[in-house]
Amino acid sequence: MRLTKYDRDALDGKPLSTLRLELKDVGSGWIELELISDETRVPIACSSVFDPFHDFLVWLESIVLGVQRCSFLIEEEGPEKIFWAKRFYGDIYQLKILKSWGPNKEILNCYIHKAQLMEAFYGSTVKFYFSEHYNRDKHEIFTIEDKFVQNTGRKLLQDSHIQELLKFKGKSLRHLFLALKHETISWNSSLNSRQNCLQWIKMTLRKKETYAFKSIRWFETFDTDTLEDKYNAIFRSAKYEVSDYGYAFNLKRFHSVLIEHYLLNQSTKDFLHMDSLMFDYKITCEEEETYLKIIPYVNSIALFLEYAINIFCLNNATKTSGEYALFTCTCGDEGCGGIERSPQVIVDETTVTWTIYEPSSYTFQFDKETLIKTISHLKKMLLHEKSLQEWETIEYTPCTCVADFLKSA
User: Would you say residue 296 lies in a domain?
Assistant: First the structure.
């Protein structure tokens, strides 16, 4: 992050720090954070009993909105850590990590640019949630909606589905609720909604006493409620907690359009700010075919996840200006993904600028040398994973193998 002369005058010799956040799932209802600022490392324990992630997100959004001073506390089931931030000048914040009691309360005191703070805290946390290192099955409370979507591919919270459920009365509705909550269900396309519901009801009848006992509090007043009250009860149960599982974190809801909009539009807000581009990848198997999926992160935000980044034009897009099909449908075609206007790429001696029109409008400016190294690093990671000969049999998009991208490595 480069600073203007005015920024340096305001800092009055104080160094601007770099910041990194590493998250680790250690199980039994604990996630460990390690905050790394220059040479200082601050370990922080997050307990599912005092889940801090909702307050963490609110604190970050407050900073994005320009609140002058804000703080929140992480309860470590005994010790406490206070995150404190104060707007120092422009987009520069003073960040402190404090203990709430005892000697040497100040653990960390540094100055950092708001964008770098968001990339470190928000970007790292979201990326961790979607990584294989976070055990969602152990930590997430499954709602009825989760169960319904997971097994049917349909959304329970649509009015039509809830109205369909409410056509059942008394015990039938109770058994349907239990099926959605406790059983592994599947949607039979040859049946209509009501027939599918009847199948699920039959599935739970043999276990109804066990499951009814587990959910007895929920059903104490449900049978006597009005139709509107039943509708609201199902809606609340679908949207919020319906499980007694103890190791629950709010990471599933750690999402902020406000923060992502701020990060993705950095180069348009600060003419001295260079956008960052990173790649992550996964190898998946679909219908006996092996595919490579590459996820681009711009300023630590996963970009256009429903599309495929066109890795085959990345090299040329660092050499020559022009229009490039940077994002395509997963089949490899722009038009199939609804993109009618290709991004404009401008390459000069030191920078590469992407002007993207669809599916959303953004302008990103990257340091040219860094971008070339990032693409080269992606190729080296893939070749470390598998040999070029093995990549010949793995597709990136249908009919295009990954090896075509790696031959220039």
Answer: yes
Asked whether residue 256 is assigned to any structural domain, the reply reads: no
What is the model's pLDDT at position 183?
A: 74
Q: Can you spell out the DSSP letters for 256-325? A: -HHHHHHHHTHHHH-TTPPB-EEEEEEEEEETTEEEEEEEEEETTEE--TTSEE-GGGTTGGGTS-EE--
d(CA 249, CA 252): 8
- For 32, the token pair is 């460990």
Pair 68, 165 in one domain: no
Give how many domains the chain has, as a whole number.
3
The pTM of the full predicted model, rounded to 2 decimals, is 0.70
Structure confidence at residue 362 (pLDDT): 92
Tokens standing for 212?
Answer: 């009814």
Under 8 Å CB-to-CB from 63, ≥6 apart: which residues?
70, 85, 87, 93, 114, 117, 118
357: confidence class by pLDDT, cuts 50, 70, 90: very high
Same domain for 223 and 280? no
DSSP string, 60-81: HHHHHTT-SEEEEEEE-SSSEE
Helix, strand, coil shares of the chain, percent, nearest 5, are 40, 25, 35
Binning pLDDT at 50, 70 and 90, where does residue 342 land? very high
Q: Convert the pLDDT of each residue in 161-214 to its tens digit.
A: 667 777 777 777 777 777 777 777 777 778 877 787 888 877 777 776 676 666
30-34, 267-271, 387-391: lowest mean pLDDT where?
Answer: 267-271
Which residues have a Cβ under 8 Å from the Cβ of 175 and sit 6 or more positions away?
Answer: 201, 204, 205, 208
Number of Cβ atoms within 10 Å of the Cβ of 125:
21
Distance CA 148, CA 237 (A): 12
Closest CA to 130 of 295, 247, 17, 288: 295
